[in-house]
Amino acid sequence: MPPNTAICVFRVAQEALRNVVRHAKAGSVEVSLRARQGGIALTVHDDGQGIGSAPGDARTSLGLVSMRERVRLVGGRLEVVSRPDHGTSVIAWVPLQEAA
């Protein structure tokens, strides 16, 4: 795995877990890392309150923006799925080869 891709995946996982600790009020969190479609898929899912459920929560928070930008810079994509009181999933896919 290219070093920039490895750092990207690590930092996205780190920020997603930090958000769980700070905001989610979750009972559990699941992290998975799998090879998928020529790349690596990272999923961080919690069973917390969901984004937008607490005052000050927003899909445009600096943490989410930075995760999106990190993934974009290595040619990947990031999706955030959240439902109030049903948790949040951060799903990142990055290619195993660096983008040109």
Quick summary:
The protein has 100 residues and is an alpha+beta fold. The protein is built from two helices and four strands, in the order H-E-E-H-E-E.
Structural notes for this entry:
The chain is of the alpha+beta class and 100 residues long. It has one domain: Histidine kinase-like ATPase, C-terminal domain (Heat Shock Protein 90, 2-Layer Sandwich). Helices cover 34% and strands 32% of the residues. It has helices spanning 3-24, 62-73; strands at residues 29-36, 39-46, 77-83, 87-95. The protein has a 4-stranded antiparallel β-sheet with strand order 1-2-4-3. Strand 3 and strand 4 (87-95) form a beta hairpin. The longest helix is centred in the first third of the chain and has 22 residues, at 3-24. It is elongated and about 35 Å long. The model has no long low-confidence stretch (mean pLDDT 91).
Features:
Heat Shock Protein 90; 100 residues; single chain; four-stranded antiparallel β-sheet; alpha+beta; 2 helices
Oligomer: single chain
> Can you write the helix and strand succession as a string?
HEEHEE
CATH superfamily: Histidine kinase-like ATPase, C-terminal domain
Integer average pLDDT: 91
